[in-house]
Amino acid sequence: MRGLRRSGEAMQHPRVAYFPDSFHEVNGVAHTSRQLVSFAGRHQRPMLCVRAAAAQGESESGSASACGSVQVLELPRGRSAIRVEKDLSFDPLFGRHLNAVRRALEHFQPQVIHITGPSELGFAGAYFAWEMGVPLAASWHTNVHEYAARRLESWSRRLPGGLARGLEGGVQLAAWHSAGAFYRLARVLYAPNAELCAQLQAATGRTCHLMQRGVDTTLFSPARRRRAADDTTLRLGYVGRLSVEKNVALLIEVERELFARGIRDVEFVIVGHGDEQARLRAGLRQAQFTGVLRGEALADAYAAMDLLVFPSHTDTFGNVVLEALASGVPAVVTPDGGPKFIVRHGETGLVARDADFGAAVALLAETVTLRQRMGQAARSYAEGCSWDAVFERVYEGYARAAEGRGEAVWQI
User: Fold this and answer.
1) Which end of the chain is more exposed for a tag (fewer CB within 10 A), N or C?
2) Any idea what DSSP says for residue 408?
3) Are 412 and 184 a contacting pair, CB within 8 Å?
4) Cα 361 to the center of its chain, rounded Å
5) CA 336, CA 149: separation in Å to the nearest integer?
6) Per-residue pLDDT reduced to its tens digit, 267-294
7) How much is the pTM?
8) Which residues are CB-contacts of 372 (< 8 A; sequence separation ≥ 6)?
9) What dihedral do alpha carbons 43, 45, 50, 55 form, nearest 10°?
10) Which of 68-72, 141-145, 250-254 has the lowest mean pLDDT?
């Protein structure tokens, strides 16, 4: 089965088998994956998307479908799946689907297999790339090494400070080296920002291409803002998972600092769900929790905000930040991870460390004209971002892999 190819196929648009970690869930990987599959369909790029089904179940079989140039194989996760997030699981018995995946791949005859991380889908995609002699592309979407260390904090915080920091640092380093070894299997890599690309290239010796994110500026728009003229409440929004690695507990400290400065006409709008929700409900005095919002409801929520406060240190890009900017809403983010590459400090928002985060929010709370000017600049910036431009660059990487330029397949 090695070297499986469809003879006479034009190499301009390689046949891509895509194995996303997440597709139906509410997170950046899923959102990007849905956009990539949509792009392939709109532009008649042949693609097979092998993904987990939306709901768990005991069924041993998957479902296949096709729409234009895109074929889909959906495979259910079983009841043995381990919960990773509220709507995301890892199925250790996913191997029962390998025969179905093999049949779909043999029928489709991919020229590139693209995985998005070390999940059951990622392992399956990497295995079949090896078995079939097909070039492997891998995109980095989640800082798994940082997530592992942050998830350990709930237990390690009981230890003495030095020991806890050493343990968390050791886990993060081990996870980074493990992830590097996994990504070294690929011929080409993708990452959402230049900093991560440089780190991956150094760790793996592979070429890394930018795979940034786009935004729908028609859906996310300041035209949706419908607040009354006499509504002076400062609405501070957060959109995303309510989890420890998102550093959402800092929002409680922000509210306390605003109150201490006499800024009290404030309301937090918390969009999302997760394990930290109870902590936020107990700690925030003036907040509404909307749960997960999608589509127009989400766009309306952004447009009604005055400022997005996004304290995460671990996001590799920050889709929600770009959506807020498209809605004419400036953002305050930390200097860690991908959001700092989206927010232009002093122009479309502010970049501040945890110790200064509350002060940055207070500055924009008290300076309406600055906040409004930033909102206009934010919208202008977002209008220059498009999903089509992002994925055209991704396909350039696919072509490079399919044409055999660069490193040999499975050079370890």
Assistant:
1) C
2) P
3) yes
4) 24
5) 15
6) 999 999 999 999 999 999 999 999 999 9
7) 0.73
8) none
9) 10
10) 141-145
Alpha carbon distance 74, 124 (integer Å)? 14
For residue 51, the surrounding DSSP H or E stretch is strand 47-52
Dihedral (C-alpha) 354, 359, 360, 366: value to the nearest 10 degrees?
160
Tokens of 154: 């709930």
Torsion of CA 123, 124, 127, 132, to 10 degrees: -150
Residue type, 399: A
Say if CB 232 and CB 263 are below 8 A apart. no
Q: State both tokens at 9.
A: 């196929």
Structure tokens at 265: 């006409």
Structure tokens given for 93: 């018995």
Contacts of 175 (CB under 8 A, 6+ apart): 144, 145, 148, 149
Quote the DSSP letter at residue 315.
Answer: B
Single-letter code of the amino acid located at 324: A
Confidence (pLDDT) at 6: 45
Q: Which residue has the tokens 């008649």?
A: 44
